[in-house]
């Protein structure tokens, strides 16, 4: 990776900058150029900031998460797709790493570390990032914080003034007219669109989401390996919470045990360790994620752990039954596992979402519980917790080899409780490959 320290700034080119002539470096000033020193002379780029403690090593710490060649290949594929769609450039938009940072991370490895904040003039990029990929010219990352050693881009501008910087780079690269596609158009605010339209009024901005979201659906072997390691951290966290589960412990104490163990097992972070006891187990989502309510004998306890390892997410759920186990809860657990098995049996390339839903509904119907089947059967997972495809009724989609999915059928019976099992799997030609190992029907006696 070229070291940006000590390089002299590029002079303003008379024509767009060519990608192959653009070594990676940080630029200090807004608008795609180096900050002027006193008297107007350009300054040398500053030494990039580092947040790596001494001795820390690993993907995403002292080097990109994936091999640099993978990111370069993705950028070149995006350039080719832009040309095929009549676009002069594509702007990928990303939010914080735990919100919606996947498009930018997929293309260059950058994950925005700060939470997204309200746009204040001059600081409208807090917790967000932009990657501008022109058909001809350097790929430019604009971010509020960036670490060059982990990012694959030809230029990196660190600034909170994203809109000013984007306009500057469009002018510098000769992109003041033409069509620019936006990948992540649902993330780009109206205020950002207005600012860009005012700065370069002759540019036509068009949605280009599928140019990035489509290739993100299929995980490369290196990504599958990272997701397997992420699932390991989730399994360790779940095992720790299940080990201490007993009547009298609070949801918060159980969540703390699982969170600590997942972090110790290598997780980058644990977004939450959801613990829902008793009739709260009916709900997939609830705030707060864990309360001071204490576990009681004879009730279900739902555990859902979400986080990431090396930037790749994990999302695994188990429901434990605390003894003595009531027969109706045992039956609910068996019905849920039957739904899971029915869906897994059909997890092959070409299977439609409707096929998966029919399989789960059929299994639930054999227990007289079809009306109790929750709508969400699962979703893709990768650099974001919830990715395409969404396994919901009415979704017109089908599975492809190389997808990584979270399969999570849930049955909810008012007055009794809910039961769900969530597995992370890789879709392969001969069936799903399980990444998770936690027992599906844990018991606490």
From TrEMBL:
Domain Peptidase M24: 226-429
Entries under SUPFAM superfamilies matching the protein: Creatinase/aminopeptidase, Creatinase/prolidase N-terminal domain
CDD domains linked to this entry: APP_MetAP
Bias type Pro residues, positions: 43-52
Ranges of residues in domain Creatinase N-terminal: 74-217
Chain segments carrying region Disordered: 1-63
Bias kind Low complexity: ranges: 17-28
Pfam families: Creatinase_N, Peptidase_M24
Protein name in UniProt: Peptidase M24
Source organism of the structure: Thermaerobacter marianensis (strain ATCC 700841 / DSM 12885 / JCM 10246 / 7p75a)
């Amino acid at each position: 990776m070229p070291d940006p320290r000590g390089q002299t700034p590029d002079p303003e080119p008379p024509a767009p900058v060519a990608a192959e002539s653009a070594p990676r470096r940080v630029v200090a000033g807004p608008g795609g150029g180096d900050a002027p020193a006193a008297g107007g002379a350009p300054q040398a780029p500053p030494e990039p900031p580092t947040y790596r403690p001494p001795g820390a090593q690993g993907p995403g710490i002292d080097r990109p998460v994936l091999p640099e060649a993978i990111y370069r290949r993705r950028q070149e594929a995006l350039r080719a797709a832009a040309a095929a769609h009549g676009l002069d450039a594509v702007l990928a938009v990303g939010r914080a790493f735990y919100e919606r940072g996947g498009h930018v991370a997929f293309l260059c490895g950058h994950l925005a570390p700060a939470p997204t904040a309200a746009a204040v003039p001059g600081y409208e990029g807090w917790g967000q990032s932009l990657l501008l990929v022109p058909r001809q010219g350097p790929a430019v990352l604009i971010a509020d914080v960036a670490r060059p050693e982990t990012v694959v881009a030809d230029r990196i501008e660190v600034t909170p003034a994203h809109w000013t910087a984007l306009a500057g780079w469009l002018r510098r690269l000769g992109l003041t007219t033409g069509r620019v596609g936006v990948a992540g158009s649902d993330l780009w605010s109206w205020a950002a669109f207005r600012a860009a339209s005012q700065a370069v009024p002759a540019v036509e901005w068009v949605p280009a989401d599928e140019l990035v979201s489509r290739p993100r659906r299929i995980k490369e072997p290196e990504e599958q390996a990272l997701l397997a390691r992420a699932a390991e951290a989730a399994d360790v966290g779940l095992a720790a919470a299940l080990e201490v589960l007993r009547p009298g412990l609070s949801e918060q104490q159980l969540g703390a045990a699982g969170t600590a163990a997942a972090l110790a097992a290598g997780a980058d972070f644990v977004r939450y360790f959801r613990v829902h006891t008793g009739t709260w187990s009916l709900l997939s989502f609830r705030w707060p994620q864990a309360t001071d309510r204490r576990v009681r004998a004879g009730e279900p306890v739902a555990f859902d752990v979400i986080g990431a390892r090396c930037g790749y997410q994990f999302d695994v759920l188990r429901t434990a039954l605390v003894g003595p186990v009531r027969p109706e809860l045992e039956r609910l657990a068996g019905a849920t596992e039957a739904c899971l098995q029915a869906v897994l049996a059909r997890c092959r390339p070409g299977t439609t979402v409707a096929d998966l839903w029919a399989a789960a509904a059929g299994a639930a119907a054999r227990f007289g519980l079809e009306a109790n089947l929750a709508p969400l059967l699962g979703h893709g997972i990768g650099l974001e917790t919830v990715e395409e495809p969404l396994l919901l009724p009415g979704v017109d989609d089908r599975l492809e080899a190389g997808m990584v999915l979270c399969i999570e059928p849930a049955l909810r019976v008012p007055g009794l409780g809910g039961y769900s099992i969530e597995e992370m799997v890789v879709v392969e030609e001969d069936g799903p490959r399980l990444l998770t190992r936690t027992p599906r029907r844990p018991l606490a006696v």
